[in-house]
Amino acid sequence: MDQELDYQELTGTVETVIFKNEENGYTILRLRSDSGEIVTVLGCFPFAAPGESVIASGKWVNHSVHGRQFKAEYAQRFLPSSAPAIYQFLAGGSVKGVGPATASLIVDRFGDRTLEVILNNPQDLASVKGISSAKAQQISRNFRQQAGLRMLIEFVCSFGLRPILAMRAYKYYGDKALESLRENPYLLCSALVGGTFREADEMALGLGMGGSSKNRIGAAVLFELQHNTGNGHCFIPREKLAAVTAELISVTPEEADECIAELIEDNQLRYEEIAGVNACYLPELYDAETNAAACFARMSRRTFTDKLDTEKLLRKLEARQGIHYAPMQRQTLELALKNQLLVITGGPGTGKTTSIRAILPDRPRRQTHDRAHRSGGRDGPSSARREV
Q1: By C-alpha distance, which of 206, 205, 185, 210 is closest to 196?
Q2: Which of 23, 118, 352, 382 places its Cα 20 to 30 Å from the Cα of 51?
Q3: What separation in angstroms does the CA of 150 have from each of 86, 147, 381?
Q4: The domain defined by 2-78 carries CATH number 2.30.33.40
Q5: Does residue 102 contact residue 130 with C-beta atoms inside 8 Å?
């Protein structure tokens, strides 16, 4: 969090919302700063609306087209409290079902108490001309949803974390997101929310959770597996997984292994002995690997039965490419003409690319390696048959 030392603070009131993404909360707005300057602010401001107050922390940036802007990383937001500001807030479309005309009627009736009435006493809204009991309840539900997300964002940002994490958590956990994160902050680094282990750990330790809690160790185990997928590993041996987890969060390997066992039992990890190795997988990678193996096994049993004059076809390929195939290359091409699946191996300069280009003729070289890896049925050897 050292970079926060470089952040500056900007305080003001939202004037207009220029752009907003309903999915991730990304917003571009105009803010009237306390000094009276109109500033363009970029950041995660879900449900932002004119009239609300903002204290944003971030950096000034220069856009090549739009000029000087403030890029907010964190923000505190405050609902308007005066009747004029509340009207501006509601008239700007911040609450679904309330437009300028309805906003005027509601604020005229309840004044500074308007937002409190909408949130806690929706039945009173029905006394306003044009608002039925059903519509009053709907307006209140919409506002409560917004208020719940605002509380969640404030909670997440109070630990110096990104507001987008709150948006994602709310998307998957709904009204129970705040309660769920208080109970298990490590939900932040789940695949659903997409936070880092460090971010979740910061929240958990800030809430006073112990360094050896089951949730913390479990999250660290899953983090190590996810992190190592970036290094090309589908699994980690169980003993090594326990050791690296213990090193990461300063617990004992025995504590880590105990948690690994619980994750396996809960189906959050897949465990299988492979060639004498106790392999631990993330479920999605285990399924992908086993499905790919099953697919290759099926393909390896399929052969092409149509009768071909292979010698004639190979002579045509040699003439087209202007080369003479070595005996091993000719054998490779004969196998490609008869089988759906073919694995070609060999060191540099042994003729792999030449063979593949013969199997997949007239393909751009850049595509040849990719298509060969996929060995895709009728795009493979049979395609070479048709194109010869």
Answers
A1: 185
A2: 23
A3: 17, 5, 58
A4: no
A5: yes
